[in-house]
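Hi there,

I know you've been waiting on this one. I reran it after we fixed the sequence typo, so this is the corrected version. Both the input and the resulting structure follow.
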Amino acid sequence: MEFEVSYQLDNEQQFWDELDDIVSAQCQTHGLIDDALRSYITFVTTYKEEYLHTEYDLARCSFKLLESALFSAHKDYVRRQIVFSLLEEDSPDTLHLIVALLLFDGRNNEATFEMMNEEGIFPRLVELIYGQKDDDAGLHRMLLELVYEMSRIQRLRRQDLILIEDDFVQYLFQIIEGLSDDVNDPYHYPVIRVLLILNEQYMVSAHDPTPSQNPNAITNITNKVIKTLSTSGSRYKTFGENIILLLNRESETSLQLLILKLLYLIFTTPSTYEYFYTNDLRVLLDIITRNLLDLPLSATALRHTYLRVLYPLLAHTQLRNPPHYKRDELSRLLAMMTATGGATEGHFGAVDETTKRLVGRCVRVGWLSGNEAGRDRNGEEVGEGKVGRKLLGVEMPGGMTSSLSVVEVTTQRETPGVLTGSRRREELEKQAK
């Protein structure tokens, strides 16, 4: 039995009724399932322009299949057929539906994203992102979201990461520069998140090899995000402004970590030390100090990551130059974080050894410690400045093999969707009761 699409629809309700009939088909063989899927895709794309006017309509259409008995009974097979369709289809309308199905299904079932990775879908997504913006803005935005979602829950294959060209990364930065300064622009957030997740993937590839890999035998993959900022950062200032704004308002821990990882590399790579405007650095310092005060006691790992970013921010950027921004306030905060006894210990709790070490490194920054030469007393500024060489794909004898901070920053992760606690929010909630 074949499912041919031959309908005369008079109104939108008829469209949804017919769609229900298509996804309710009882299919016992792969051939019948294939026929039903073809009917579903053909029917939806035929009437897309007439009846699917919003992203909500497309999502509703997708969930008609994903919540159907057809899908429930044959999940693995249907998912695989949809994945293969993404490799084969070229029609924007068909691609839009396929990408929506994979995105919505993957958000509820990570197995879908894992299957996409196993089947080598990532290069296809990069190809489509590079070529679809002018054809269908909604499809382009959804492709960006799909790349981000599938990449943040797993390590991408090295052979796929290697295929990313400089031009593609530059293209993403150019999209941001070509938009308004409004971070709420519908394109800003998805594009920025893709750049952040690509940076993390490069870091993981360089500093967190899989158990089956010999770290000494792996050729480094050039971090194209840092490379672009190193060679052309002055052309892409809007991106920097926006990631600071995002850090200021972001409550999801995993995304905070993505931003902090990129900031860490920017501040430990000599060619990007001064990528940000000085006023933006001051805003960033305010955000970091506020968050350090606001983090709950349980957020130890995130606190450590903030401190690892704070050190090169203070030691390497324009903040090291007079007039020194909020030096007294910062010194008091750092003293509080390692104090024992009294009210300050009540705020930060028992101080662990890693916090003591990281705070001590910040305190020894020249302009905070009174050593105006601008180097810390342990010479760590020189060592951390070499991080970028490895991440840019340049091997240096002895490189960063002894660097603990970059590995700790790289491997720090949180489950997507987990929100960072807030002392201030908790206090307001208590007062409201």
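Quick highlight: The CA atoms of residues 130 and 244 lie 26 Å apart.

Best,
R. S.
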